[in-house]
Amino acid sequence: MSQSTLLNNSSVTSPSSIAFDRDEFNRSVMNTYGRFPLAITKGEGCRLWDTEGKEYLDFVAGIATCTLGHGHPALVKTVSEQIKKLHHVSNLYYIPEQGQLAQWLVEHSCADKVFFCNSGAEANEAAIKLVRKYAHTVLDFLEQPVILTAKSSFHGRTLATITATGQPKYQKHFEPLVDGFAYVPYNDITAIENAIADIDEGNRRVAAIMIEPLQGEGGVRPGELEYFLRLRKICDENNILLVFDEVQVGVGRTGKLWGYENLGVEPDIFTSAKGLAGGIPIGAMLCKDFCAVFEPGNHASTFGGNPFVCASALTVLQTIETEGLLQNVQARGEQLRVKLRALANQYPHIFTEVRGWGLINGIEISADVELTSIDIIKAVMEEGLLLAPAGTKVLRFVPPLIVSEAEVDRATQILEKVMETLS
Protein backbone atom coordinates (compact mmCIF):
# COMPACT_ATOMS: atom_id res chain seq x y z
CA MET A 1 0.00 0.00 0.00
CA SER A 2 1.39 3.42 -0.96
CA GLN A 3 2.10 6.11 1.61
CA SER A 4 -0.63 8.35 0.21
CA THR A 5 -3.19 5.55 0.67
CA LEU A 6 -2.03 4.97 4.22
CA LEU A 7 -2.38 8.64 4.98
CA ASN A 8 -5.80 8.89 3.41
CA ASN A 9 -6.96 6.05 5.65
CA SER A 10 -5.23 7.26 8.80
CA SER A 11 -6.57 9.38 11.61
CA VAL A 12 -3.87 12.03 11.51
CA THR A 13 -4.63 14.85 13.89
CA SER A 14 -3.72 18.45 13.25
CA PRO A 15 -0.79 19.83 15.21
CA SER A 16 -1.56 22.06 18.12
CA SER A 17 -1.23 25.78 17.51
CA ILE A 18 2.35 27.03 17.57
CA ALA A 19 3.20 30.56 18.56
CA PHE A 20 4.59 32.48 15.60
CA ASP A 21 5.37 36.19 15.38
CA ARG A 22 5.60 37.35 11.76
CA ASP A 23 7.01 40.75 12.76
CA GLU A 24 9.86 39.12 14.67
CA PHE A 25 10.56 36.88 11.69
CA ASN A 26 10.72 39.84 9.33
CA ARG A 27 13.04 41.74 11.65
CA SER A 28 15.61 38.94 11.56
CA VAL A 29 15.29 37.26 8.15
CA MET A 30 16.48 39.14 5.07
CA ASN A 31 13.64 40.21 2.81
CA THR A 32 14.36 38.12 -0.30
CA TYR A 33 10.96 36.45 -0.72
CA GLY A 34 7.46 37.77 -1.27
CA ARG A 35 6.00 35.32 1.23
CA PHE A 36 2.38 34.29 1.51
CA PRO A 37 0.93 34.91 5.01
CA LEU A 38 1.30 31.28 5.99
CA ALA A 39 3.67 29.49 8.40
CA ILE A 40 3.93 25.72 7.94
CA THR A 41 4.84 23.49 10.88
CA LYS A 42 3.99 19.91 9.90
CA GLY A 43 3.53 17.70 6.87
CA GLU A 44 2.46 14.13 6.10
CA GLY A 45 2.09 12.71 2.62
CA CYS A 46 0.54 15.41 0.44
CA ARG A 47 -0.82 17.38 3.38
CA LEU A 48 0.57 20.30 5.35
CA TRP A 49 -0.56 22.12 8.48
CA ASP A 50 0.07 25.72 9.51
CA THR A 51 0.69 27.24 12.93
CA GLU A 52 -3.06 27.52 13.51
CA GLY A 53 -3.66 23.84 12.79
CA LYS A 54 -5.29 24.45 9.38
CA GLU A 55 -4.76 21.66 6.84
CA TYR A 56 -3.68 22.19 3.22
CA LEU A 57 -3.38 19.96 0.18
CA ASP A 58 0.18 20.49 -1.06
CA PHE A 59 0.46 20.87 -4.85
CA VAL A 60 3.72 22.84 -4.54
CA ALA A 61 5.92 20.18 -2.89
CA GLY A 62 8.60 22.70 -2.03
CA ILE A 63 8.50 23.75 -5.72
CA ALA A 64 8.82 20.30 -7.30
CA THR A 65 11.18 19.13 -4.57
CA CYS A 66 9.38 16.89 -2.04
CA THR A 67 9.39 13.87 -4.35
CA LEU A 68 7.99 11.45 -1.77
CA GLY A 69 5.82 14.02 -0.04
CA HIS A 70 6.29 14.73 3.66
CA GLY A 71 7.39 12.18 6.25
CA HIS A 72 7.67 9.22 3.88
CA PRO A 73 8.58 6.15 5.99
CA ALA A 74 11.49 5.08 3.76
CA LEU A 75 13.13 8.51 3.89
CA VAL A 76 12.46 8.90 7.62
CA LYS A 77 14.14 5.54 8.26
CA THR A 78 17.19 6.40 6.14
CA VAL A 79 17.84 9.86 7.58
CA SER A 80 17.33 8.61 11.13
CA GLU A 81 19.79 5.77 10.70
CA GLN A 82 22.35 7.76 8.70
CA ILE A 83 22.50 10.72 11.09
CA LYS A 84 23.40 8.31 13.90
CA LYS A 85 25.97 6.55 11.76
CA LEU A 86 27.82 9.33 9.88
CA HIS A 87 26.53 12.55 8.41
CA HIS A 88 29.58 14.38 7.03
CA VAL A 89 33.22 13.88 6.15
CA SER A 90 35.42 15.66 3.67
CA ASN A 91 35.77 14.70 0.03
CA LEU A 92 39.43 14.25 0.89
CA TYR A 93 38.31 10.66 1.57
CA TYR A 94 36.24 8.07 -0.28
CA ILE A 95 32.58 8.17 0.74
CA PRO A 96 30.84 4.82 0.14
CA GLU A 97 27.34 6.34 0.03
CA GLN A 98 28.49 8.80 -2.63
CA GLY A 99 29.86 5.97 -4.74
CA GLN A 100 26.61 4.02 -4.42
CA LEU A 101 24.51 7.01 -5.47
CA ALA A 102 26.80 7.84 -8.40
CA GLN A 103 26.68 4.21 -9.57
CA TRP A 104 22.85 4.21 -9.45
CA LEU A 105 22.67 7.45 -11.42
CA VAL A 106 25.12 6.24 -14.06
CA GLU A 107 23.30 2.92 -14.43
CA HIS A 108 19.94 4.70 -14.82
CA SER A 109 20.92 7.52 -17.17
CA CYS A 110 23.03 8.34 -20.21
CA ALA A 111 25.83 9.75 -18.01
CA ASP A 112 29.19 8.19 -17.19
CA LYS A 113 30.40 10.52 -14.40
CA VAL A 114 28.76 12.52 -11.60
CA PHE A 115 29.84 15.58 -9.59
CA PHE A 116 27.88 16.29 -6.39
CA CYS A 117 27.11 19.68 -4.89
CA ASN A 118 24.29 21.28 -2.89
CA SER A 119 21.78 22.92 -5.22
CA GLY A 120 20.57 23.36 -8.77
CA ALA A 121 22.43 26.63 -9.18
CA GLU A 122 25.67 24.96 -8.11
CA ALA A 123 25.04 22.04 -10.46
CA ASN A 124 24.55 24.49 -13.33
CA GLU A 125 27.69 26.41 -12.29
CA ALA A 126 29.59 23.13 -12.47
CA ALA A 127 28.19 22.50 -15.96
CA ILE A 128 29.21 25.99 -17.09
CA LYS A 129 32.75 25.50 -15.76
CA LEU A 130 32.99 22.07 -17.40
CA VAL A 131 31.90 23.54 -20.75
CA ARG A 132 34.53 26.26 -20.51
CA LYS A 133 37.33 23.88 -19.60
CA TYR A 134 36.33 21.54 -22.43
CA ALA A 135 36.33 24.47 -24.85
CA HIS A 136 39.76 25.69 -23.73
CA THR A 137 41.46 22.30 -23.50
CA VAL A 138 39.82 19.96 -26.00
CA LEU A 139 38.91 22.72 -28.48
CA ASP A 140 42.16 24.53 -27.68
CA PHE A 141 41.66 27.14 -30.41
CA LEU A 142 38.60 28.44 -28.56
CA GLU A 143 39.57 31.61 -26.70
CA GLN A 144 36.06 32.98 -26.07
CA PRO A 145 33.54 30.14 -25.70
CA VAL A 146 29.89 31.18 -25.79
CA ILE A 147 26.98 29.29 -24.22
CA LEU A 148 23.58 29.71 -25.86
CA THR A 149 20.57 29.64 -23.53
CA ALA A 150 16.85 30.18 -24.09
CA LYS A 151 14.79 33.26 -23.42
CA SER A 152 12.36 32.76 -20.51
CA SER A 153 14.71 30.12 -19.05
CA PHE A 154 15.74 29.83 -15.41
CA HIS A 155 19.08 28.37 -14.32
CA GLY A 156 19.74 29.71 -10.81
CA ARG A 157 20.62 32.74 -8.67
CA THR A 158 24.42 32.88 -8.76
CA LEU A 159 26.04 35.49 -11.00
CA ALA A 160 26.82 32.98 -13.73
CA THR A 161 23.43 31.27 -13.58
CA ILE A 162 21.38 34.48 -13.56
CA THR A 163 23.40 35.47 -16.61
CA ALA A 164 22.51 32.12 -18.18
CA THR A 165 18.88 32.75 -17.24
CA GLY A 166 17.10 34.39 -20.17
CA GLN A 167 14.93 36.69 -18.05
CA PRO A 168 16.13 40.28 -17.50
CA LYS A 169 14.07 40.67 -14.31
CA TYR A 170 16.44 38.29 -12.50
CA GLN A 171 19.51 40.18 -13.74
CA LYS A 172 18.46 43.72 -12.85
CA HIS A 173 20.87 45.54 -10.49
CA PHE A 174 23.41 42.70 -10.57
CA GLU A 175 25.48 44.01 -13.45
CA PRO A 176 28.12 43.54 -14.71
CA LEU A 177 26.95 40.11 -15.73
CA VAL A 178 29.27 37.25 -16.64
CA ASP A 179 30.50 37.33 -20.22
CA GLY A 180 30.07 34.44 -22.61
CA PHE A 181 26.29 33.96 -22.91
CA ALA A 182 23.78 34.66 -25.67
CA TYR A 183 20.02 34.09 -25.83
CA VAL A 184 17.59 32.61 -28.36
CA PRO A 185 13.82 32.00 -28.29
CA TYR A 186 12.76 28.59 -26.93
CA ASN A 187 11.62 25.93 -29.43
CA ASP A 188 12.92 28.04 -32.37
CA ILE A 189 15.50 26.07 -34.35
CA THR A 190 16.06 28.85 -36.90
CA ALA A 191 17.10 31.18 -34.10
CA ILE A 192 19.67 28.59 -32.94
CA GLU A 193 21.12 28.23 -36.44
CA ASN A 194 21.32 32.00 -36.91
CA ALA A 195 22.95 32.53 -33.52
CA ILE A 196 25.63 29.93 -34.22
CA ALA A 197 26.39 31.55 -37.58
CA ASP A 198 26.51 35.05 -36.07
CA ILE A 199 28.71 34.10 -33.10
CA ASP A 200 31.18 31.76 -34.80
CA GLU A 201 33.67 34.37 -35.95
CA GLY A 202 37.15 35.40 -34.83
CA ASN A 203 37.97 34.10 -31.38
CA ARG A 204 34.32 33.58 -30.40
CA ARG A 205 32.46 30.35 -30.94
CA VAL A 206 29.41 28.56 -29.54
CA ALA A 207 30.76 25.90 -27.19
CA ALA A 208 27.46 24.69 -25.70
CA ILE A 209 23.72 25.03 -25.77
CA MET A 210 22.24 24.98 -22.25
CA ILE A 211 18.50 24.40 -22.18
CA GLU A 212 15.60 22.99 -20.14
CA PRO A 213 13.66 20.05 -21.63
CA LEU A 214 10.61 21.85 -20.21
CA GLN A 215 10.74 25.44 -19.02
CA GLY A 216 9.42 25.53 -15.46
CA GLU A 217 9.77 29.09 -14.18
CA GLY A 218 9.27 30.26 -17.76
CA GLY A 219 5.63 29.16 -17.73
CA VAL A 220 5.64 25.32 -17.81
CA ARG A 221 6.49 25.15 -21.52
CA PRO A 222 7.46 21.68 -22.81
CA GLY A 223 10.17 21.29 -25.41
CA GLU A 224 9.04 20.27 -28.88
CA LEU A 225 10.25 16.89 -30.10
CA GLU A 226 11.35 18.00 -33.57
CA TYR A 227 13.17 20.99 -32.12
CA PHE A 228 15.24 18.87 -29.74
CA LEU A 229 15.99 16.21 -32.36
CA ARG A 230 17.30 18.93 -34.64
CA LEU A 231 19.19 20.52 -31.74
CA ARG A 232 21.05 17.28 -31.07
CA LYS A 233 21.98 17.00 -34.76
CA ILE A 234 23.26 20.60 -34.86
CA CYS A 235 25.41 20.02 -31.79
CA ASP A 236 26.90 16.84 -33.28
CA GLU A 237 27.66 18.55 -36.60
CA ASN A 238 29.30 21.59 -34.98
CA ASN A 239 31.15 20.00 -32.06
CA ILE A 240 28.89 21.83 -29.58
CA LEU A 241 28.06 20.39 -26.16
CA LEU A 242 24.36 19.90 -25.41
CA VAL A 243 23.58 20.66 -21.75
CA PHE A 244 20.17 19.98 -20.19
CA ASP A 245 19.04 21.71 -17.01
CA GLU A 246 16.92 19.00 -15.37
CA VAL A 247 16.83 20.61 -11.92
CA GLN A 248 13.03 20.81 -11.97
CA VAL A 249 12.01 18.10 -14.45
CA GLY A 250 14.36 15.27 -13.45
CA VAL A 251 13.88 12.45 -10.91
CA GLY A 252 10.53 11.21 -12.19
CA ARG A 253 8.68 14.53 -12.25
CA THR A 254 7.66 14.12 -15.92
CA GLY A 255 6.60 10.47 -15.64
CA LYS A 256 10.00 9.34 -16.88
CA LEU A 257 13.10 9.29 -14.70
CA TRP A 258 14.74 12.09 -16.73
CA GLY A 259 13.19 14.85 -18.76
CA TYR A 260 15.32 14.11 -21.81
CA GLU A 261 13.58 10.74 -22.16
CA ASN A 262 10.45 12.61 -23.29
CA LEU A 263 12.38 14.03 -26.25
CA GLY A 264 14.25 11.02 -27.61
CA VAL A 265 17.68 12.67 -27.33
CA GLU A 266 20.58 12.37 -24.91
CA PRO A 267 22.45 15.41 -23.59
CA ASP A 268 26.21 15.44 -23.15
CA ILE A 269 25.81 17.04 -19.74
CA PHE A 270 22.76 17.39 -17.50
CA THR A 271 22.04 18.72 -14.05
CA SER A 272 19.79 17.59 -11.22
CA ALA A 273 18.79 18.89 -7.77
CA LYS A 274 15.36 19.73 -6.23
CA GLY A 275 13.67 16.32 -6.06
CA LEU A 276 16.89 14.27 -6.05
CA ALA A 277 16.83 13.75 -2.27
CA GLY A 278 13.19 14.65 -1.73
CA GLY A 279 13.89 17.99 -0.06
CA ILE A 280 17.28 17.35 1.53
CA PRO A 281 19.77 19.70 -0.20
CA ILE A 282 21.76 18.06 -2.97
CA GLY A 283 22.74 18.89 -6.53
CA ALA A 284 24.44 16.85 -9.22
CA MET A 285 26.12 17.55 -12.54
CA LEU A 286 26.28 14.45 -14.75
CA CYS A 287 28.19 14.06 -18.01
CA LYS A 288 29.51 11.62 -20.55
CA ASP A 289 33.09 10.40 -20.43
CA PHE A 290 34.32 12.34 -23.46
CA CYS A 291 33.68 15.71 -21.78
CA ALA A 292 34.51 14.74 -18.18
CA VAL A 293 37.60 16.95 -18.21
CA PHE A 294 37.65 18.08 -14.56
CA GLU A 295 40.84 17.18 -12.65
CA PRO A 296 41.70 17.49 -8.94
CA GLY A 297 41.67 21.17 -8.01
CA ASN A 298 39.37 22.25 -10.88
CA HIS A 299 36.16 22.16 -8.89
CA ALA A 300 34.99 21.12 -5.43
CA SER A 301 32.26 21.32 -2.79
CA THR A 302 32.64 21.03 0.98
CA PHE A 303 29.21 19.55 1.58
CA GLY A 304 28.66 18.04 -1.86
CA GLY A 305 28.02 14.30 -1.80
CA ASN A 306 28.31 13.80 1.94
CA PRO A 307 27.04 10.50 3.44
CA PHE A 308 23.78 12.00 4.74
CA VAL A 309 22.53 13.53 1.50
CA CYS A 310 23.70 10.65 -0.67
CA ALA A 311 21.99 8.02 1.47
CA SER A 312 18.82 10.13 1.34
CA ALA A 313 18.96 10.54 -2.44
CA LEU A 314 19.57 6.85 -3.02
CA THR A 315 16.50 6.05 -0.90
CA VAL A 316 14.36 8.47 -2.91
CA LEU A 317 15.49 6.95 -6.22
CA GLN A 318 15.04 3.37 -5.04
CA THR A 319 11.58 4.20 -3.66
CA ILE A 320 10.55 5.60 -7.04
CA GLU A 321 11.39 2.15 -8.43
CA THR A 322 9.92 -0.06 -5.69
CA GLU A 323 6.65 1.87 -5.33
CA GLY A 324 6.06 2.21 -9.09
CA LEU A 325 5.88 5.98 -8.81
CA LEU A 326 6.61 6.66 -12.49
CA GLN A 327 3.37 4.90 -13.37
CA ASN A 328 1.56 6.94 -10.72
CA VAL A 329 3.02 10.16 -12.13
CA GLN A 330 1.83 9.29 -15.61
CA ALA A 331 -1.68 8.37 -14.46
CA ARG A 332 -2.16 11.27 -12.05
CA GLY A 333 -0.66 13.73 -14.54
CA GLU A 334 -3.10 12.70 -17.24
CA GLN A 335 -5.97 12.85 -14.75
CA LEU A 336 -4.94 16.36 -13.72
CA ARG A 337 -4.63 17.63 -17.30
CA VAL A 338 -8.06 16.24 -18.20
CA LYS A 339 -9.58 18.07 -15.22
CA LEU A 340 -7.73 21.30 -16.01
CA ARG A 341 -8.76 21.19 -19.68
CA ALA A 342 -12.38 20.78 -18.61
CA LEU A 343 -12.00 23.83 -16.38
CA ALA A 344 -10.38 25.79 -19.22
CA ASN A 345 -13.31 24.87 -21.49
CA GLN A 346 -15.71 26.00 -18.77
CA TYR A 347 -13.96 29.36 -18.46
CA PRO A 348 -12.52 30.07 -21.94
CA HIS A 349 -12.47 33.81 -21.25
CA ILE A 350 -10.09 33.21 -18.31
CA PHE A 351 -7.91 30.23 -19.27
CA THR A 352 -6.15 29.82 -22.61
CA GLU A 353 -4.04 26.65 -22.42
CA VAL A 354 -3.15 23.63 -20.29
CA ARG A 355 0.32 22.14 -20.77
CA GLY A 356 2.87 19.94 -19.07
CA TRP A 357 4.33 16.48 -18.63
CA GLY A 358 3.64 14.03 -15.83
CA LEU A 359 3.24 15.99 -12.60
CA ILE A 360 4.60 19.33 -13.76
CA ASN A 361 1.63 21.13 -15.29
CA GLY A 362 0.46 24.67 -15.89
CA ILE A 363 -2.76 26.40 -16.84
CA GLU A 364 -2.34 29.78 -18.49
CA ILE A 365 -4.51 32.79 -17.65
CA SER A 366 -5.61 35.02 -20.51
CA ALA A 367 -3.73 38.28 -20.92
CA ASP A 368 -7.12 39.92 -21.49
CA VAL A 369 -8.29 39.44 -17.89
CA GLU A 370 -7.02 41.27 -14.82
CA LEU A 371 -6.64 38.08 -12.79
CA THR A 372 -3.07 37.00 -12.07
CA SER A 373 -1.68 33.68 -10.90
CA ILE A 374 -1.15 35.18 -7.43
CA ASP A 375 -4.81 36.22 -7.22
CA ILE A 376 -5.96 32.66 -7.81
CA ILE A 377 -3.26 31.15 -5.57
CA LYS A 378 -4.40 33.31 -2.65
CA ALA A 379 -8.01 32.33 -3.24
CA VAL A 380 -7.36 28.56 -3.36
CA MET A 381 -5.11 28.86 -0.32
CA GLU A 382 -8.10 30.08 1.65
CA GLU A 383 -9.86 26.84 0.62
CA GLY A 384 -6.94 24.63 1.65
CA LEU A 385 -4.98 24.15 -1.58
CA LEU A 386 -1.39 25.26 -2.20
CA LEU A 387 -0.30 26.09 -5.75
CA ALA A 388 2.75 27.91 -7.15
CA PRO A 389 3.01 30.56 -9.86
CA ALA A 390 5.10 30.15 -13.01
CA GLY A 391 5.09 33.82 -13.90
CA THR A 392 2.21 36.24 -13.47
CA LYS A 393 -0.16 34.37 -15.78
CA VAL A 394 0.47 30.65 -15.19
CA LEU A 395 -0.68 28.43 -12.31
CA ARG A 396 1.81 25.62 -11.65
CA PHE A 397 0.81 22.17 -10.31
CA VAL A 398 3.77 20.15 -8.96
CA PRO A 399 2.47 17.83 -6.20
CA PRO A 400 4.55 15.04 -4.65
CA LEU A 401 4.92 12.02 -6.91
CA ILE A 402 2.90 9.95 -4.40
CA VAL A 403 -0.25 12.05 -4.95
CA SER A 404 -3.43 9.97 -5.10
CA GLU A 405 -6.39 9.98 -7.48
CA ALA A 406 -8.60 11.35 -4.72
CA GLU A 407 -6.14 14.15 -3.99
CA VAL A 408 -6.02 15.22 -7.63
CA ASP A 409 -9.82 15.26 -7.68
CA ARG A 410 -9.90 17.32 -4.49
CA ALA A 411 -7.39 19.87 -5.81
CA THR A 412 -9.33 20.45 -9.02
CA GLN A 413 -12.61 20.65 -7.10
CA ILE A 414 -11.16 23.43 -4.95
CA LEU A 415 -9.93 25.31 -8.02
CA GLU A 416 -13.32 24.93 -9.71
CA LYS A 417 -15.09 26.24 -6.61
CA VAL A 418 -12.79 29.26 -6.46
CA MET A 419 -13.23 30.01 -10.16
CA GLU A 420 -17.00 30.07 -9.74
CA THR A 421 -16.48 32.97 -7.35
CA LEU A 422 -13.66 34.78 -9.17
CA SER A 423 -15.29 34.57 -12.60
Q: What is the count of DSSP helices, taking H or I runs of 4+ residues?
A: 14
CATH architecture of the largest domain: 3-Layer(aba) Sandwich
User: Biggest sheet, in brief?
Assistant: 7 strands, mixed
Proportion of helical residues = 25-40%
Beta content comes to 15-25%
Question: How is this structure best described in words?
Answer:
It contains 14 helices and 17 strands. The protein is an alpha/beta fold and 423 residues long. The protein folds into two domains: 3-65 and 324-422, Aspartate Aminotransferase, domain 1 (Alpha-Beta Complex); 75-322, 3-Layer(aba) Sandwich (Aspartate Aminotransferase, domain 2). The strands form four sheets. Strands 4-12-11-10-7-5-6 form a seven-stranded mixed beta sheet, sandwiched between helices. The protein has a four-stranded mixed beta sheet with strand order 1-2-3-15. The protein has a four-stranded antiparallel beta sheet with strand order 13-14-17-16, with helices on one face. It is globular and about 60 Å long. The two termini are 40 Å apart. 46% of the residues are buried. Residues 1-16 have low confidence and may be disordered.
